[in-house]
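Lab notes, practical 5.
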Amino acid sequence: MHSNEDLTLYQKIRNDIISGKLKQSEKITETKLAKQYNVSRTPIREVIKKLELEYFIKDSYIFIPTIEEYRNIFEMRILLETYALKKAAIVYTEADLEELKSYTQLDINNEDDEKILVTNDKFHQKIMGATSNPFILETYQKLESFIYLFSKTVINKRRPGLIEEHAEIVDELYNRNIDKAVILLESHLKKDLEFSLYYLSFRN
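Output from the prediction step:
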């Protein structure tokens, strides 16, 4: 696990939003955050911009999406990742497939949350990288905080089948069954959504 000192300012503030340490009812200001995190206003300004781009802060308050908005965000994620997977089937080398497979060889019950989070992120980022399209990647990056929030929930609560579903997707890629791989990826992401919404509904 990373110590708090190892985290970037962005990660600290993002994590404090997710954990509820930063209250949803309090206005987010550069001055207040600079004092709270003992830094100057310049880096705080950059973090706020990034979190606004990722829809985590809106109109100087923590953005609390409705269930419908969460579903809309995930609809975008599914579109992007399934498109990227189709590209992966075309451009992936044997080495790419081996790298993707390496991210599925994890015992979710015997690893700490941080390692699973990182490995899970590497799996999905590897798929997205197949697009080699900076505009698509920038759009995906804007969803990063929500993806992190959902990943943290499914990993913390140990969603059944999480890593096994990754392995099944890779198997279908190896077998050149791209249509089946895409169906499996879409199903996987929808399960993440429903599982996370169940737990997130208790936060709001």
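Observations recorded by the TA: The first helix runs from residue 9 to 19. The radius of gyration is 18 Å.
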